Amino acid sequence: MSSHGEAPGGMDVDIDFGAQVWTADGYMIGLVSGVVLDPDRRAVSHLVVRYGLAVTVDRVVPVAAVAQVRGHRVQLDLTAPELGDMPELEERAYIPLTGIETGTAEHPAESAPGLWTRTPAIALQYLVSDHTTDQANVVEVWRSVPEGSLVLREGTAVRARDGRRVGSLKEVVMHLPTGALVDVVVTRGAHVKAIPAVWIEEGDEKTGIVLAVDRRAVAELPDYH
User: Fold this and answer.
1) How many domains does the chain have?
2) Which listed residue, of 3, 93, 112, 193, carries a Cα 20 to 30 Å from 159's Cα?
3) Residue range of the domain that includes 39
4) What does the pLDDT look like over 139-154, one tens digit per residue?
C-alpha cells in the first residue's frame, strides 16, 4: 500500500485533487485540479494547476517541476512568475473565416511544437465589436498536453470490466521521481479503495477509467486510509 505525505528517497506520494500548490518563492499560488496521464506508460506526465485568485486558469506543470509533496500540499521548484508562464490546458484563437491562416506570426498554431494537440475548429456566430466586422469567425482550440493523454479530475468515473461503475476518482498515487502511476484512489459510499494501476485496461475522458477486473475484486480490496 502506498504511503501518504512527503516522499524522501523517491517513495510514492498521494496527489490530492484540491491540494494547495506552493511555489519556490513562497506563494500559495493555486490548487491541483487534475493530472495528465500517459496511458501507454501508466505515468503521470503533468499536474493541472488551477492558477489565480479572482480569475483562474488551468495551467499544465510537468511532474519534473514537483519538488516534494507533503500532506495536502504540493511544493514546486518554480517561482510564481515561472508558473504563470506555464501553458494553459486549453488555448484558443478566434480567426475570421476569410482572414489569417493559423500558423502565422499573428496567430501561431503551435506554441510548443510536438506538444500541442489540436481539436477541430468550431464555427461561431458572427462576432461584432469595435474592432471587428460582422464576418463569421471560427475558434481554433488546442490542448497543451501530449497527444493521447488523459486528463483525470476529481469525480472521474472508474468502471469494472463490464462497464459498471465501482467508484469516483478521489486522488492518485504516483512515484514522484518518475511519475509512474501506482494506484488510483476511488470513493464509493463510505468506502475508499486504492486500485492498483496495473488493473487499468483503458480510459477516456467521457467513459472514465475502465479496469480489467470485476467489481468483486475492487470490493475485496482493504479500505484505504
Assistant:
1) 3
2) 3
3) 12-84
4) 666 677 888 899 999 9
